[in-house]
Every structure is written in structure tokens, then in C-alpha cells.
Amino acid sequence: MSRFVCTLLLSLLLDVLVVFATTDDLNGEVKIEVLFMPQECTQKSKRGDLMNVHYDGYLAKDGTQFYCSRSDKTGHPQWFVLGVGQVIKGLDIGMADMCPGERRKITVPPGLAFGENGKDPVPPNATVIFEVELFSVSRGPRSLEAFKEIDVDKDRRLTKAEVKQYLKAEFEKRGEPRDEPVYEKIMADIFHKNDHDKDGLISPKEYNIYEHDEL
Ligand SMILES: *[C@@H]1O[C@H](CO)[C@@H](O)[C@H](O)[C@H]1NC(C)=O
Question: Whose C-alpha lies nearest to ligand 1, atom 5?
């Protein structure tokens, strides 16, 4: 598959996707098969966690590969926040309670994938299969606790410096420090997806998809 298509699909998958109207026909359930389970599970993924994964997507009907994070130009695993619509619904559901190191085959009915219309090159009403490998899970950035922890100066706004400091500390705590460009890439992604008014700050409202009363 060409780089172009991969890149296209990457943005397609990582951008907020539409929730499709469901009909009975489209309304199947997500099927999860565990392909590999590590002996030790350090932290199971839950809604709001920052996930780092490789995933490859196939059409169920004939096995055609339509998405390939592994063969994407950088070959880096992808980042997204679980459970908030940054990936298709079926993956938000299918990647919950997953351990770092675990591999799963996730079969997603069209209603929880690309729907009645499909999304080129995925045809209409297509059941899709994702093979995913989870590399790391980190708490937040979506919990209230995380917001308070990130907001070092307690001004109820997250600056880039605050978010980056938090990210770095999280990775170092886990004994997995990363190179500077990796943090920069994650930061760019986080601000792109969350700083809706583009003022360079993440407000509680922009951050607060859980609608905590406390903020
Ligand atoms: C997709 O499924 C819906 C609901 O079953 C149906 O109405 C529609 O015609 C299908 N579209 C195609 C292109 O098969």
C-alpha cells in the first residue's frame, strides 16, 4: 500500500469520526480475539488513557488490507486517547481493558466502523478487522486528577510547557524516556486535537470531555 494511502488513512482514523446511524443490519457487536497476552499486565487500558499502538486494518470479506500503521512512512506506532472518538467506535470498544504488550484481532461491524457509506477505500456496509498491538498505556490525559497534576501553577489552563513536563515525567516514571522529537510529536497531536480555539492553552472546557463538576 502506498505511503500516500497510509497517510490519508491515518488522518482518517485519528481524526474524530462520525458516529453512524445504525440500523439492525449494521448493529453487530465488536468481536475480540486475544492473539497474545503478556505474562504480566502492568496496567489495563481504560477510557481516557493515552494509547500507543500499531494497527493494521483488513476488510473481512476478502482480507484486503486498507490500513497499515506498521508500513506507514515513519513506522511509528500511533497515539490516541481511548474511548473518546479519536478512532472508530469499534476500536474504542475493542481496545478497552487491554494490557501493554497484548495483541488482539478485533472484528468490527459496519455500524461501529465506517457505516452504510463506507469511507474510501472501505466500501459501504463493510465489516472490518483490525490487528492491534498495544505498546503502552498511560493514565490521562483525561482524568480530573491528571488535569490538576498537569496544571502546575494552578491557573486552570494547561500550557504546552506544563503538558510536556507531565508527559516526560510519565514516561520517565515508567522507565521509558523518549527522544525530544517524540515528545514534540505527541504535543503537536494533543494540541491539534484539544486546543479548539487555538490559543495555545487547553482550558478545562477543552480538556473536560468527562464533564466533571469540580472544574
Ligand atoms: C447498506 O446497508 C443498508 C442497511 O441494511 C442498506 O439500506 C443499504 O442499501 C446498504 N448499502 C449498500 C451500498 O449496500
Answer: 25
Which atom of ligand 1 is the closest one to the Cα of 23? Answer: 4
Ligand 1 midpoint to CA 94 (Å): 24
Q: What is the DSSP string of 90-142?
A: HHHHHTTT--TT-EEEEEE-GGGTTTTT-BTTBPTT--EEEEEEEEEEEEEES
List pLDDT tens digits, range 120-145. Answer: 889 999 999 999 999 988 876 556 67
Pocket test for ligand 1, best of 26, 125, 127 (most atoms within 8 A of CB): 125
What separation in Å is there between the alpha carbon of 109 and the centre of ligand 1?
A: 13
Summarize pLDDT for 76-131 with one digit per residue, the tens: 677 788 888 888 999 999 999 999 999 999 999 999 999 999 998 899 999 999 99
Q: How far is the CA of 116 from the centre of ligand 1 (A)?
A: 6
Q: Is the pLDDT of residue 46 over 90?
A: no
Go through the domains of the chain in sequence order and give each one's CATH number: 3-139 (3.10.50.40), 143-207 (1.10.238.10)
Q: By alpha-carbon position, which residue is closest to atom 12 of ligand 1?
A: 124
Reported as a pLDDT band with limits 50, 70 and 90, residue 148 is confident
Residue 112 and residue 126 in contact, taking contact as beta carbons nearer than 8 Å: no
